[in-house]
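Notes continue from the previous slide.

Worked example: a multi-chain complex. Inputs as given:
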Amino acid sequence: ETGVTQSPTHLIKTRGQQVTLRCSSQSGHNTVSWYQQALGQGPQFIFQYYREEENGRGNFPPRFSGLQFPNYSSELNVNALELDDSALYLCASSFRPTAFSSYNEQFFGPGTRLTVL
Amino acid sequence: AQSVTQPDIHITVSEGASLELRCNYSYGATPYLFWYVQSPGQGLQLLLKYFSGDTLVQGIKGFEAEFKRSQSSFNLRKPSVHWSDAAEYFCAVGGPFGNEKLTFGTGTRLTIIP
């Protein structure tokens, strides 16, 4: 069973650029969540996708957007990069039987380290 | 709004000694509570979780945690730490249905000395 994978591992961008981060969810999982972890901080929830629809969003501006594909992999897009976007971006996947089912364990990927210069 | 406080930024423990990491949460209903561990360059690994029932929960790697509603706490304990336990530990609270966003604390870095 393959776990959650993320690509790329590291990325360096300059302010104002756009970036796309990718996540392959664990086999059988249909829900993906994205988190931003700044240095020395805990992860902060960006948004969640359930069966290709956004299903919850944290306190992040619209320039943070995402997609979930039919195979349940996901992308996180960030436009107009700012210096404060430098962080570790974590993806987590889980299987949710129905839209309102109770908690299902989230499995985290190793993250993508984004540096904005 | 839900929140998590981990009052200890950094803890140093001798190998073989006992460990307790503190976590206080704020949530309006019965919370879903979690402890995760993060080693350098790694993602987050779930140590244990509390949803309901027995307030003392057992996890992996010999860890346990106790839910105390009256104190809004969910402290993590281990009777005897190993050098491999050195890592960053995060407490988190989950919202309604449990699978909504997780709100994490700022973490506690654990250092083990020989």
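Summary box: The mean pLDDT of chain B is 92. The CA atoms of residues 32 and 83 of chain B lie 29 Å apart.
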